[in-house]
Amino acid sequence: MGDLGPCGPCSEIFYDHGDHLKGGPPGSKDQDGDRFIEIWNLVFMQYEQISKTERINLPKPSIDTGMGLERMTALLDGSNDNYSTDLFWPTINESKNLCGDENSINNPSHRVIADHLKSSSFLISDGVMPSNEGRGYVLRRIMRRGMRHAHSLGNKDPIFHKLFPTFLKGIKDSYPELERAKDLILSTLLNEETKFKETVEKGIKILEDEISNSSNIFDGEVAFKLYDTYGFPLDLTQDYLKNKDIKVDLKTFNKKMLDQKQRARQNWKGTGDIQDDKIWYEITSDLNSTEFLGYKDSEAECKIIAIISQGKITKKIEKDKEAIIILNQTPFYGESGGQVGDSGYLENDNFKFSVLNTTKIFGNYFLHFGKIINGKCEINDTIKASINNKSRNLIKYNHSSTHLLHAALRKTLGNHVTQKGSLVNSEKLRFDFSHNNSIDKEELQIIEDIVNNQIKNNGTVDIKIIDQKKAIDEGAMALFGEKYGDEVRVVTMGNENGSYFSKELCGGTHVQKLGEINKFKIINQSSVASGIRRIEAVSNISVDQFIKEVEKNNIDKDIIQTKQLEELIFNIKKINPEYIFKNKYDNKTLYIKELSQTYQKLKQNKSISKNIDSTIIKKINNINFVYLIAKDFPNKSLKSFIDEQKKKYLNKSVSFIISNDQKKLSFVLGVSEDITNVFDASKEIKKISNILGGKGGGGRKDMAQGGGSDISQIDNCLKYIENKLSTIS
Q1: CATH: 3.40.1390.10, 3.40.50.620, 3.50.50.60, 3.30.980.10. Which one for 392-539?
Q2: Nearest-angstrom CA–CA distance, 636 and 498
Q3: How far apart are the C-alpha atoms of 294 and 296, rounded to whole Å?
Q4: Cα separation of 84 and 92, whole Å?
Q5: What whole-number distance in Å separates Cα of residue 79 and Cα of residue 77?
Q6: Which of 203, 401, 541, 572 is buried deepest, with most CB atoms within 10 A?
Q7: What are the tens digits of pLDDT across the range 163-176?
């Protein structure tokens, strides 16, 4: 348990597997053996530790029980090994077959793969997606640990998605949520392992580059960068280096890891939810929950049962005071997920309170946030509560559109599409969903057309409350990771002749007929995380408003583009009028883009021509030394210059170009193949870089590049190269 909070005495239940196994009972010196295995733990919660020295009795004692289901399964199977049960063994056996590992059924890697596949599958079915932060990062780490073992067994192709059906077959009856999330799990496993394979390839490339700079110790800082930035596991780095007799500097690696953990702890401030919850527990402990009337009524007579101002309960509030009001019943929808809460007014003859937002906590307590405009209100006042109908209707249109969009996405992209988040307000809707690829314009248009066809068909929206299992059996979509009660609210859309277009569990507000939505338009799509896409859309009058805004922006854009064109044509004429061509495109954007590229190329060519005239050639120790000190030379052309010199001087030549662009120095060194054994560009560039105030640099023996900042050292740099060439024998 934690330092503070509920606590009590505990008991641990162990099972004795028999004296044929090594090990002694708990507490003995041989307790680490396999004979006695803990299968159950019970904590008798009867106290609350409120400080280090104070403990009070809990008003409602309870028993916190935790049983090891896998250990119990092994016990019932007559085994002391979790991995030999029918939960794991089929997956382990299939892993062996896929890996072609016929003689190594006891290879621990197969157990790791099976165990990590199980954990990953459950997390994905609970709505967690791999990412670089929070619980998504935990999932990614779990997946990649297992995938690393698959990789170490020689698998070139992803196998986790191939193993999942075997795992699912033995567990789907007990955990139907895995069957429901099957498509999502399969696509996520395949996508993540494919990315892991790409990560391995990138990591090995970086390893190869760094190995050339290492002796028998590999830089721990680079190993940490591989792990932290590229997701390349340390043990994979060690395995790769082992074959080359190189060890990782673990001291530096571990220090970097510790620094990162300390930074993470310092940055984590907590959410504040627990503290807020404590306040609301105290406030609501003596209150009856709020009855929601808003599915049918937009106005109702209600009673004030609590007023909260500045975090405290108060009996009354007066003009200009901000407060939260709780009613015995309300027509205001309370935000608890994607749909925003209602706004409107609470009033009687003595006061008027403007409700700016409504939220719902602890299931059924509705909090009306706002400010008293005039008069004063008191606890137990009877009032009229009326919502902003215009805003509610716009929200209904957008929320109903979200259901249609979800169904259209699944029909177009596949059943792996599931909701990962949403925001529905009066202006627009935002819908996040699982999908690993971007959606092209044609697909977006198909999705939009499907939604608009449903609106045009004006199908009915049927809402009923039924048993949760029955709802799922009838095909209702449940959100992964969402907790539902025994009875659920099912919203069915396009319900005609026994078939339906969309069926979801949802507590929000919706239209009665789909035609009320009028029209729907997708306005944007983007990626919000790995494997999660976002679509933003508008409906009803917001579609017309969006189109007007686009038209206005297009007019403004056209004016700006006309000015850009005039300026570009003027600048090109100054350099070479022959390069001005007519617009061959349907729009100005592509014309401007091509003209801009032409102008940049002309500027670069002008700069290159101007600089190349300053090229100097010296003969040192029978070696041609060609160098150019340039100003604002295009970076992309530095290597081209060296290539040209190497073609001119095929033997016994060293070429060097350095460009100063006011902020930094960029340089490239080239060496003819016949002298790379005595003048190695990849080694010399590092020394040149140090002279010019840079760090490192790199490349091949015949060509390398670097950067620096100390312009005053250019002459010393050239002297260094000349001295080096003069000593070559």
Answers
A1: 3.30.980.10
A2: 65
A3: 5
A4: 9
A5: 5
A6: 401
A7: 999 999 988 888 88
